């Protein structure tokens, strides 16, 4: 069984999380893991138009963790990397609670 530490990388002042976005979902939130792609599955209601899905992803991680979050790669792709700025240990702890 996968957990957040399997799909993330610790940096000095942030955590990078690899995600797979499912846009135009009927609800938003974490939906488990894609073990083959080694990514956290994240459902968003927004369509993938004009960066709306990316904005929802950033807002969702900010709401879940309380830390500034930004999509740092995969802007035009369903497979993205989100950088969450803050204490990586605390971020992992919070995300672990929300995705288990």
Please identify which CATH superfamily we are dealing with: YggU-like
**Topology-level CATH name:** Conserved Hypothetical Protein Mth637, Chain: A
**Which structural class do the helices and strands define?**
alpha+beta
CATH class: Alpha Beta
Low-pLDDT sequence parts:
none
SSE pattern, N- to C-terminal? EEEEHEEH
Total individual domains = 1
CATH architecture descriptor text:
2-Layer Sandwich
From the spread of the alpha carbons, the general shape counts as globular
Assign a percent range to the helix content: 25-40%
Gyration radius, to the nearest Å? 12 Å
Number of helices: 2
Query: Which percent band covers the strand fraction?
Result: 35-45%
Query: End-to-end span in angstroms?
Result: 10 Å
How would you describe this structure to a colleague?
With 100 residues, the chain is an alpha+beta fold. The protein has one domain (4-99): Conserved Hypothetical Protein Mth637, Chain: A (2-Layer Sandwich), CATH 3.30.1200.10. The chain is 26% helix and 35% strand. The chain has two helices and six strands, in the order E-E-E-E-H-E-E-H. It has helices spanning 52-65, 88-99; strands spanning 8-10, 14-22, 29-34, 39-43, 69-73, 79-85. Strands 1, 2, 3, 4, 5 and 6 form a six-stranded mixed sheet that branches. The protein is globular and about 35 Å long. It starts with 7 loop residues before the first strand and ends with a helix.
